[in-house]
């Protein structure tokens, strides 16, 4: 990896952390330049625009998410073990990814849901990809016989996603110490109700 790529990666690590705290729109190029020791023009030389930086921040988050959530789950046996690993990894991904402000995808969804542009388009596609990954894992779990044959895989993935949303709010906003336990129990109840 060359010096330019190392600098770019360092900028994106800092930018992802900051965006998780203040939002993509709240991220100041001036503050980011100070935190990375670059000039504003030096920062822009790597990305060209704030929107391009936002897309790259999201791309960096997707890469971390895949590394922390999806890849380790793929090492589990097909079926319920893999699905459970996906869910458990999902609950822990921001801590393991060093993202102090919580799930950047959820924060960006609130920020970008009514806006047009490349950052929103990238976010939508990344979230659809995640839901497709989750849906395929449910389908494999059904094929393995760990869930009932009549399970609607898209609905099941939607419910898993809903548990995650509730968990994230309870943990981050409400500082509920029992949030993770409740999320794990809700997941197991969902499994048990669909055997």
Main beta sheet: none
How would you classify the helix and strand content by structural class? mainly alpha
CATH classification, class level of the domain at 58-192: Mainly Alpha
Note poorly predicted spans. Answer: none
Any overview of this molecule?
The chain is mainly alpha-helical and 195 residues long. The chain has a domain at 58-192: Tetracycline Repressor, domain 2. 76% of the residues lie in helices and 0% in strands. It contains nine helices and no strands. It has helices at residues 3-22, 29-36, 40-47, 50-74, 80-96, 104-112, 118-143, 153-173, 179-192. Helix 7 crosses helix 8. The longest helix is centred in the C-terminal third of the chain and has 26 residues, at 118-143. The radius of gyration is 18 Å and the shape is elongated.
Can you summarize this structure?
With 195 residues, the chain is an all-alpha fold. The chain is built from nine helices and no strands.
Topology:
Blueprint: H1 3-22, H2 29-36, H3 40-47, H4 50-74, H5 80-96, H6 104-112, H7 118-143, H8 153-173, H9 179-192
């Amino acid at each position: 990896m060359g010096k330019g790529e190392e600098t770019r990666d360092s900028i994106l690590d800092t930018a992802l952390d900051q965006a998780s705290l203040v939002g993509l729109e709240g991220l100041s190029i001036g503050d980011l330049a100070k935190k990375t020791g670059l000039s504003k023009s030096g920062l822009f030389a790597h990305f060209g625009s704030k929107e391009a930086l936002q897309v790259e921040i999201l791309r960096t988050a997707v890469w971390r998410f895949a590394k922390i959530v999806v890849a380790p789950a793929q090492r589990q046996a097909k079926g319920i073990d893999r699905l459970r690993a996906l869910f458990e990894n999902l609950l822990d991904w921001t801590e393991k990814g060093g993202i102090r402000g919580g799930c950047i995808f959820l924060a960006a969804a609130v920020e970008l849901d009514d806006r047009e542009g490349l950052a929103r388009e990238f976010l939508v596609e990344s979230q659809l990809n995640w839901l497709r990954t989750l849906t395929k894992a449910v389908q494999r779990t059904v094929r393995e016989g760990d869930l009932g044959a009549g399970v609607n895989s898209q609905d099941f993935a939607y419910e898993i996603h809903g548990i995650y949303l509730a968990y994230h709010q309870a943990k981050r906003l409400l500082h509920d110490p029992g949030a993770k336990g409740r999320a794990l129990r809700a997941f197991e109840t969902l499994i048990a109700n669909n055997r």
